[in-house]
Specification:
homodimer, 346 residues, alpha/beta, Rossmann fold, 4-stranded parallel sheet, 12 helices, 12 strands, 41% helix, elongated, DNA-binding
Amino acid sequence: MNRDGPNTPRRALTLRDVSEASGVSEMTVSRVLRSRGDVSETTRERVLEAARQLGYVPNKIAGALASQRVNLVAVIVPSLSNLVFPEVLSGISEELEDSGLQPVFGVTNYSTEREESVLYEMLSWRPSGVIIAGLEHSDNSRAMLENAGIPIVEIMDVDGSPVDSVVGISHKRAGIEMARAIVGAGYRKIGFLGTKMPHDHRARKRMEGFQAGLAEAGLELADQEFYSGGSALLKGREMTEAILARNPELDFLYYSNDMIGAGGLMWCLEKGMDVPERIGLAGFNGVDLLDGLSCRLATMDACRREIGRRAAAIVAGRSETGLVGGEHVELSPVLQPGDTIRKTTG
Amino acid sequence: MNRDGPNTPRRALTLRDVSEASGVSEMTVSRVLRSRGDVSETTRERVLEAARQLGYVPNKIAGALASQRVNLVAVIVPSLSNLVFPEVLSGISEELEDSGLQPVFGVTNYSTEREESVLYEMLSWRPSGVIIAGLEHSDNSRAMLENAGIPIVEIMDVDGSPVDSVVGISHKRAGIEMARAIVGAGYRKIGFLGTKMPHDHRARKRMEGFQAGLAEAGLELADQEFYSGGSALLKGREMTEAILARNPELDFLYYSNDMIGAGGLMWCLEKGMDVPERIGLAGFNGVDLLDGLSCRLATMDACRREIGRRAAAIVAGRSETGLVGGEHVELSPVLQPGDTIRKTTG
DNA sequence: GTGAAAGCGCTAACAT
DNA sequence: ATGTTAGCGCTTTCAC
């Protein structure tokens, strides 16, 4: 609306404008605006006042080109609707808050191709670091990361070989431990319910670990069910109904995430099933949404916020270790048994 | 890890490197890389091959400075954990997909100060447009938006005076209509439950509209309850218990969002209350999470994805109207009565 | 404490 | 179809 108002500049303001308005050289204006010392208090105030009056906003593009420094950190995640990732992003934002660095988010929709183009796009802004979910990338992406010459932190997962630093949990181990807990509680006919997405490597690794854990006890998955798309809660209900119709003797259901698990739990409770005696359930992630359910679903905390924080700390050069790169941080998710795993008396 | 590998460049590659490797002038390389026509197929391929081999990633900073064009759109929202905003962002991303523009997200945590600094930071990258949630900004922020000289789209809300374009719904009207529906269904003792956040202007406007709607029928809010922080589902339970303990004769509860509404609904059902006869409930947003509940909470769709799309279309210069700025798009949220509002026999 | 000159890596505009 | 020149708005470096 105000585009043609009397104060609207035809072109954006530059340092020169502030310089002229304050009667001080561009160089000194630049120093004041970047709070570099060695400027007299008088000049400082004159400049600041002029800049404020004009409504000057510095041009970081020119600044970055001249200084060869960009205070941006590229953050690349598969999705924003997963609930997990916004929490990781919060952790990153918090840690970066007063580091002078600014996160820029990119979303891949679990597509390797899209990851490649998002990464390319972001690297072309010459960020100071990259935080990227997962260890599985296309050859091109991996090459770009290796050649970027900046700190790279792969997050969420540690099962694989990182380009540089890595912060995450072992989903394989998480699966194994969940299997052990379930078997230890006496369940024997165990089903797995998860996403169909072929690119959700972490869910796949959890399932593989889970199978390995069952194998330790001489067990196998009794049945499995996969979905894609739609409301997770609803899908959880539907899949639970389907798998139990097919296989009524199942005594435990392991879900690849908490939301479908919660849907399944609600379905079981409504059907009047005895949870956790007749049937036990568990999910994954430890989303605090579950705090609101009357019956708490067993789950495992994925340490999302902490992962974000630690990754950001590495990029900001603030991690405790003196390492310059190649840090390897494995966090340990903790089983939260809730009310849906039978208590063993031993 | 690979930082010191044999192929790691000490400094980033430039056009000049590609130029030398391909034996073609920088200018022609630049043309090839930007797919500007007027380059022979032979040269094109030579250049592309050289760039690929070297692993050249263009420097957008230099490009933007030279061309005075930046393909970035600043998107500023209060929060990522609200579930509503990721959907808006998805709508924006989708619409921007093949426009050549790239969204960059910033989060304010519902703080006006933070909004100001995020906005300043983003404008200093000279984006091609700004999409920002809400119509309430600090004086400084408003001035920055007015002087930016680029398309500004304020989203979510239309109750107020926009800087330039606006895409959203009237939360006031949404409140009024919900009140009319509730009163029309015969409820009379109505309570409101919402967030305490003083900066959630949209929730406030819904409440004000709601009160206005009740007033049309000579009614007032019988009671209210506010919360801040914590798991929304859990808070919904707690607030519901509290308000009904204080005021057992309430026959309807209007929640400022679906998550606390779902918590309240679960609590009522567990207590064996007759929903919707003895007590009715309604939320706001139309989150698809509700699809998974056995009893569907009444709600109103906030048109989140659509808002994102339309806003992005305006910034991309693709909106249907021939206007250059100052577009005003008001969407109409639709009441989804679900199972928690008594059916009237009229 | 302040200023002048050079140049960051690209692209617009104009040759050829 | 390709090359040359100038300059985007800053910061670095060095001089005063």
